[in-house]
Design goal:
Length: 432
């Protein structure tokens, strides 16, 4: 029998406990190992979670789990990067294997945690840290082990995808959709981590670390949020044949790794552009398998609990078969590659200028773009209102980020441009 102790009995803790209790027989049938939920520690053990917990399982003392020699696996479901870090490291020092859904913890302190686990000879499972019930960690570590990973693109935050989907279908303002998302429980009271891309950046750092064997942290990720996206830009993107999504993007380019989270225009005929609502999707490109796409619920008690229990089952099997450490938590790269500076990233770009409608405006803007090696693929110029600012949209061919930023600063200073230009990066095939 393999005994499990859970620390943290919130949404994911409840989902994990539900699956372990309900499907104990199924897990034994499929793995040959009896996985027993022995303890759950939480400060609040009186609140009704809607499941029946066997007598003697609940405790308010995490120490009851650390000090129990019969507990093999500790599941950390507290969240955050302070107490959770102490819990994980304490479990590792106690010789216990660890499972966590804590992407922020791993994105900030992952290097320290994995080194401690390796030294102690225990495993760390973290499938639930990215994309909820989608088994993307297992895909990268095991399913695609024969591949050199070329690129990973992900819709890895359900809150922002819900907001952008609603803005697209209902032509609504960001602030209105955010309030609706909060009312429905899809967004936190303080949504900063979601809408400013922090949550996605945590997850992308983990995916990139596995894909390329380089242990990236949150500090390595270029990050932008969605709060400035307007219905006008969503409509203009549609007119050009694109959908706007908040993507986490990592890829190998000329021996360096790109690592960025930002709103991105994706062609409407790409499958990932059709992923709406709170769902997640991760695209992975390998040198042997080619393009693959993984889709499902990125959050929630049972989807995330499913991923947690998957890790528990894997570790239980390894313990039972004396094969702990069978797969490294963070595989090393054959040829470790450095991080690419954002200035050196090459992409296509969408610009929207509020330009005063006078003769020569487009030529002046295109002249500045040309001076900085940025060529135009297509232009949309809206109805003419003499003397007033009207939207002027430019879609470019591939250009270097540093050149684009320099050109935008110069264009924003022009008297014929009202306000600051909007810039959105574009992924997919080139036009023209």
């Amino acid at each position: 029998m393999i005994n499990v102790g859970i620390i943290g009995f919130g949404t994911v803790g409840t989902g994990t406990a539900t699956i372990l209790l309900k499907n104990r027989g199924l897990l034994k049938q499929r793995t040959g190992v009896d996985i027993n939920l022995k303890r759950i520690a939480d400060l609040d053990i009186r609140r009704d979670r809607g499941i029946r917990i066997p007598k003697g399982v609940l405790t308010t003392r995490a120490e009851d789990i650390f000090s129990d020699p019969d507990i093999h696996i500790v599941v950390e479901l507290i969240g955050g990067t302070t107490i959770a870090k102490d819990v994980v490291l304490r479990a590792i020092r106690s010789g216990k294997h660890v499972v966590t859904a804590n992407k922020a913890l791993l994105a900030v302190h992952g290097i320290e945690i994995f080194r401690a686990a390796e030294k102690a000879g225990v495993e760390v499972g973290f499938e639930a840290s990215v994309a909820g019930g989608i088994p993307i960690i297992k895909v990268l570590r095991e399913g695609l082990v024969a591949n050199r990973i070329k690129a990973v693109y992900g819709i890895i935050n359900g809150t922002t995808n819900y907001i952008l989907s609603k803005m697209t279908t209902e032509k609504a303002e960001f602030s209105d959709v955010l309030k609706e998302a909060q009312r429905l429980g899809y967004a936190e009271a303080d949504p900063t981590y979601d809408i400013e891309g922090v949550d996605s950046a945590h997850k992308l750092a983990i995916l990139a670390s596995i894909a390329f064997g380089v242990q990236f942290t949150l500090r390595d990720v270029h990050r932008e949020g969605i709060s400035w996206i307007s219905p006008m830009d969503i409509d203009l993107a549609e007119e050009l044949g694109y959908t706007i999504k908040l993507l986490g993007i990592t890829k190998e380019t000329n021996g360096r790794i790109e690592l960025r989270v930002h709103p991105t225009m994706v062609p409407q005929d790409f499958l990932i552009s059709k992923v709406d609502g709170v769902f997640n999707a991760v695209y992975v490109e390998g040198d042997a398998v080619g393009s693959t796409l993984y889709y499902g619920r990125g959050a929630g008690a049972l989807p995330t609990g499913s991923a947690v229990v998957s890790d528990i089952a894997d570790i239980a099997l390894n313990i039972a078969n004396n094969s702990v450490g069978r797969i490294p938590a963070m595989p090393g790269a054959i040829n470790p590659m450095p991080l690419m500076k954002m200035d050196d990233v090459v992409s296509m770009y969408y610009f929207r200028f509020s330009a005063i409608d006078k003769p020569g405006v487009l030529s002046r803007i295109s002249g500045i773009l040309g001076k900085h090696n940025i060529s135009i693929a297509s232009v949309i110029q809206k109805e003419r209102l003499a003397g007033k600012a009207v939207p002027l949209v430019v879609l470019t061919h591939r250009a270097r980020e540093k050149d684009v930023v320099t050109a935008m600063k110069e264009i924003n200073k022009l008297k014929i441009v009202a306000g600051k230009a909007v810039l959105i990066r574009v992924e997919g095939r080139e036009q023209g």
